[in-house]
Amino acid sequence: MKVDFYRHALSEADASAVAAVLATPFLTTGKVCSSVERQLESYFTVPHALLVNSWTNGALAVLLAMDLQPGDEVIVPAMTFIASANVVHLAGGTPVFVDVDPRTLLMTPEHVEKAVTPRTRAVMPVHIYGQMCDMKGIRAALRRARPAGGEPVLIEDCAHCFEGTRDGYRPGRHSDVAIFSFYATKNVTCGEGGAAIFNSEDLYRKTLETRLHGMSAIAVDRFSGGRYNHWDMNRLGTKANLPDLLAALLPHQISTIDERLPERKRLADRYRAAFAGGPLRLVEQVDTAVSAEHLFVIGVGNGARDAAIARLNEAGVSVTVNYRSVPEMSFYKTRLAGSAESWPVSWQWGEETLTLPLFPGLSEAEQDHVISTVRNHVYPLIAADKA
Ligand SMILES: *Cc1c(COP(=O)(O)O)cnc(C)c1O
């Protein structure tokens, strides 16, 4: 049996929404984007939302809006996707890696407090796999640390967590800005895309410009009043705006996301029950958090992760690795003081982890095949004596 890693659930209705945009003369950032931005503001109860063409470009626009100077530091976890650190480099700053909690793989307030220096300009917690970091605690840790350079900007990497909550709050509640990804495999998707939601008025105003080359007016405004209006450029920006053509895929997904979460949770709980008491390392679930259940990851010890991937692939099961520790990447290795083992939890998890298929629409038969392959072919690898 072949089991895909992921299948999207876009429908005929979504195709019609795109066709409706195609029937207008205006394809890029316009009315559809504005209306999705209002939808996001109401879903997250925040004053401002901006759609962007990827998490990466959205984060870059935010960091450009902050005008990072060489030597300015941004604290990021070592266990995340490379994009979280790359954008800091692209914007001219220095990523400072911190390790993560061994049970949840999340950055904690304690990690942040220890890493803050007078050069810290921002902190970027990542809600990895769908569980939210303790944002309230991280905000409090920043207030306690009081770096000489002023309170750092708190940026949430919400690529894995759109619909999750922690202690009853959603992303965007305790941060200055929270950034989402609508990449092909994310819980809300338009192929490529993303959004940033803001509590900081100042950062929102500046990002509105850095999202589009630093231009002082977006396309619809340049032609408002039926004539051409001149614009200026106040700061350096990137090209991060989302076209209406892709934004058309979002309204329905956003309005139904909470109805789809129970299906993800049912599938994730089914994996958790099947593997309970077994030899795999599983991510501990925070009692007071509702996970967005973006990825179902397992840890395979005994140096057997890559052999496990081979066994699963032979059985027709597609898997991925989310992630090897970022400081393990050659680009970072040559630029960092410590070795990859300086972030031991991230490094070890990065050696052990692999991700199983999880998406609404995964059938019971498919999931049973994945479960029995893990039990029959991966468990013995963990028990085996190493030669
Ligand atoms: C997917 C992802 C990103 C990047 O998102 P893009 O929209 O592809 O730029 C950033 N951080 C994390 C944790 C991700 O999983």
UniProtKB/TrEMBL annotation:
Database matches in SUPFAM superfamilies: PLP-dependent transferases
UniProt KW Coiled coil keyword: no
Modified residues annotated as N6-(pyridoxal phosphate)lysine in this record: K186
Matches recorded under CDD domains: AHBA_syn
Any one Gene Ontology BP term: polysaccharide biosynthetic process
UniProt KW keywords: Aminotransferase, Pyridoxal phosphate, Transferase
Example of a GO MF term: pyridoxal phosphate binding
UniProt superkingdom: Bacteria
Active site: K186
PANTHER family assigned to the protein according to its UniProt record, in alphabetical order: DTDP-4-AMINO-4,6-DIDEOXYGALACTOSE TRANSAMINASE, TRANSAMINASE
Family, as annotated: Belongs to the DegT/DnrJ/EryC1 family.
Protein name as it appears in the record: UDP-4-amino-4-deoxy-L-arabinose-oxoglutarate aminotransferase
Species, as recorded: Pseudaminobacter salicylatoxidans
Classification of source organism: Bacteria, Pseudomonadati, Pseudomonadota, Alphaproteobacteria, Hyphomicrobiales
